[in-house]
Amino acid sequence: MSSVTALGERLKEKSPVITAWCGIPEPWIAALMAREAYDAVTCDMQHGTYDLAAVVRAIPLIAAAGKPALARIPVGEFQTASKLLDAGASGIVAPMINTVEDARRFVSFMKFPPVGERSWGPLVSMTLSGLQPTDYLGQANGFSIALAMIETREALADIDSILAVPGLDAIFMGPSDMSITLSGGKALNVTGAEVEKALDHVLARCKEHKKIPCLFCIDGKRAKEMSAKGFQLCSVSTDSISLRLGAKAELNAARG
User: Fold this and answer.
1) In terms of Cα–Cα distance, which of 89, 4, 107 is closest to 43?
2) Is the pLDDT confidence value at 143 over 90?
3) Which of 12, 15, 28, 47 is catalytic?
4) At what angle are helices 52-64 and 27-34 packed, to 10 degrees?
5) What is d(CA 240, CA 24) in angstroms, rounded to the nearest whole number?
6) What is d(CA 19, CA 217) in angstroms, rounded to the nearest whole number?
7) How far is C-alpha 248 from the chain's CA centre?
8) Which of 4, 89, 167, 233 stands the most exposed, by the fewest C-beta atoms within 10 Å?
9) Which domains does the chain have, with CATH numbers?
10) Per-residue confidence at 226, pLDDT binned at 50, 70, 90?
11) CB contact at 8 A, 161 and 100
């Protein structure tokens, strides 16, 4: 099993996946996280400060630890998904997928014909996967995982149609923006009653459509709880939060 294909295989087995979440644009931080017991590492280009070059440098370092790399692209920059897949990413998280058309455009860059319109050029990805060109072409649509973020009332209202888009593999819930939109901009409460209701609804719809439910979790306790509930892929904290918590713990030990 290669780092490129591992995510798809693990999700197909319905094994829980815990991913690190990296926003500090230093590839060695992603590499260090990959050496821990995470199942995958996600590089954030939307709210983190990763650019394309930094993610492309991080992917082989993550792969060297035997882990699959995911990346969250900026809003609407679907063309970036193809570049990252060519560079060896196993999954792409696309934020603010609000409509069926958003989902279709995202998938068009994620999947080769006849499902999508991804063009050929996976030189790094083929090297990391160990596959020959014909085998890569035949298998890539199965292991290049397309994760659509659902974060708004509009997306919730159209969730069944979004889930029905061929080639869309997973829904990735964004509870922060969901909290803001459901409260009309009045609150940021990722575990509020309305958010929990939305998560339960999307979880049920994913099960009905046989799609993979995923969730951004701010800490390990939340990830454990939501994995047990049925979310198959959960993030745990962020690199910056982990860095601050680790520093605080060591300082408390030194001074306490």
Assistant:
1) 89
2) yes
3) 47
4) 30
5) 7
6) 10
7) 28
8) 167
9) 3-255 (3.20.20.60)
10) very high
11) yes
The pLDDT-based confidence of 35 (bands split at 50, 70, 90) is very high
Predicted TM-score (pTM) of the model is: 0.96
Residue 47 is a catalytic residue:
yes
Round the average pLDDT of the chain to a whole number and report it.
Answer: 97
The token duo for 171 is 């829904």
Specify the pLDDT at position 3: 94
Alpha-carbon distances of 7 from 13, 69, 114, 178, 185, rounded to whole Å: 10, 9, 22, 26, 35
Write out the two tokens for 154: 């509009």
Q: Which burial class, exposed, middle or buried, applies to 114 when counting CB atoms under 10 A from its CB (0-12, 13-18, 19+)?
A: exposed
Tell me the two tokens of residue 13.
Answer: 């087995």
Beta strands in 6-47 (DSSP E): 17-22, 40-44
User: Cα–Cα distance between 49 and 26 in angstroms, integer?
Assistant: 9
> Which pLDDT score is estimated for 187?
87
Please count the residues of the chain.
256
> What's the pLDDT at 1?
81
The amino acid that residue 136 corresponds to is Y
Q: Name the percent of the chain lying above pLDDT 90.
A: 97
Inform me whether the pLDDT recorded for 76 exceeds 90: yes
